[in-house]
Specification:
Elements (H helix, E strand, L loop, with lengths): L22 H5 L2 H9 L76 H8 L2 H16 L4 H4 L28 E4 L7 E2 L1 H4 L3 E7 L2 H11 L5 H9 L4 E8 L3 H9 L1 H7 L8 E4 L5 H6 L9 E5 L5 E6 L4 H28 L1
Parallel strand pairs: 3-4, 4-5
Antiparallel strand pairs: 1-2, 1-5, 3-6, 6-7
GO biological process, one term: mitochondrial proton-transporting ATP synthase complex assembly
Pfam families: ATP-synt_10 (PF05176)
């Protein structure tokens, strides 16, 4: 309630603030204190609650108030995340990739906008809100989370799909722009290389990830796949994409490209890409690259659609599905070519 200060009847008797002395000194005088003791202040700090009778009948229709109890739900468990000891990689049960078909010249990382376009986007409030959410998500991502996720399952994000995705349901592998071993100074696009051929794509960003993709496509560990690639002729190929967003690491890779040219056969030089920019977080999430320190393998058909995908170290069942899927795509490609020749 409101507090009542000194009674107004003291105003004519106590002449405050009419001298040069401060208010604190005036209250210390005997005259002022005597007046204050004679007229005590009437201050009411709280009103006493009138007790309700215990046998009072409840009002019909009134809501019944129950005490709120805050208890932890024992049945609610924290979702297991990659990097946890009890984490089991899920099986890939849906297509991954981009919804739009890729085109050469996309995702180059180079800004080709005009000054007018930059100005219009600079004053676009909705674009700023969207960019703010992206930056917030990047800042909230722990720096060592990807490294800590390698403790268990060797960083495996998901298990490969047991069978190929249907062609009419599969999504597309995005265009990636970077230099190759054959043209270290002239960047190329991956889409012209993927179109018209069945491709086994290796995507990695470190030596650890490169060792993981070799468990899928390496000749010593998967000789059956190497034989299929060799016997497939011009219909099948292998594409390696080394993603190095760190400028210093990319500079070191470029310095030792001559050694990689010696290790790889000459036809493979134009199919080994070094990518530094353009492969954004949205594209990584689209192709299932949730951990950049892990290697990923994709089986892409002649229309740039992802029909199969694997991550981390290969398992026996995954090698079998990869080899069988590649053979199936080759058989479909041969059947389509024969049908075209019959029409002519």
């Amino acid at each position: 309630m409101w507090k009542r200060s000194i009674s107004s009847s003291l105003t004519p008797e106590i002449h405050l603030l009419q001298t040069s002395r401060c208010l604190s000194c005036q209250f210390r005088t005997t005259t002022t204190l005597s007046h204050l003791r004679a007229f005590p202040s009437l201050r009411t700090y709280a009103t006493k609650n009138t007790p309700k009778p215990k046998d009072a009948a409840p009002i019909p229709g009134a809501p019944v108030r129950r005490p709120v109890q805050f208890e932890s739900n024992p049945t609610l468990k924290r979702t297991v995340q990659p990097g946890d000891e009890e984490f089991i990689p899920p099986t890939l049960d849906r297509p991954i990739g981009t919804a739009a078909p890729p085109e050469a010249g996309e995702n180059t990382g180079v800004d080709h906008r005009s000054i007018r376009q930059r100005r219009d986007e600079f004053v676009d409030y909705d674009r700023h809100i969207k960019r703010r959410k992206e930056l917030t998500r990047q800042v909230a991502k722990p720096y060592f989370r990807e490294w800590s996720n390698l403790r268990f399952q060797e960083g495996k994000t998901f298990k490969s799909n047991p069978r190929l995705f249907r062609a009419d349901k599969a999504l597309y592998f995005p265009n990636i722009h970077g230099v190759t071993l054959a043209s270290p100074k002239d960047p190329q696009d991956t889409t012209p290389i993927l179109e018209g051929k069945i491709t086994v794509v290796n995507l990695f960003s470190s030596v650890w990830a490169e060792g993981q993709v070799n468990t899928f496509t390496g000749a010593p560990l998967n000789p059956k796949l190497a034989a299929v690639l060799e016997n497939g002729g011009s219909m099948v190929q292998r594409l390696d994409i080394n993603l190095e967003e760190n400028r210093m690491k990319a500079w070191l890779v470029k310095r030792f490209m001559w050694r990689m040219r010696q290790k790889l056969p000459e036809p493979q030089h134009s199919r080994y890409f070094l990518v530094q920019k353009g492969f954004t977080e949205l594209l990584k999430e689209a192709v299932g690259m949730m951990n950049s320190k892990v290697g990923y393998v994709y089986l892409v058909d002649d229309a740039c659609r992802i029909r199969w995908a694997g991550s981390g170290p290969a398992e026996a069942e995954e090698l079998e599905t990869l080899n069988n899927g590649l053979q199936k795509l080759i058989a479909e490609k041969k059947a389509s070519l024969q049908a075209e020749q019959a029409r002519r």
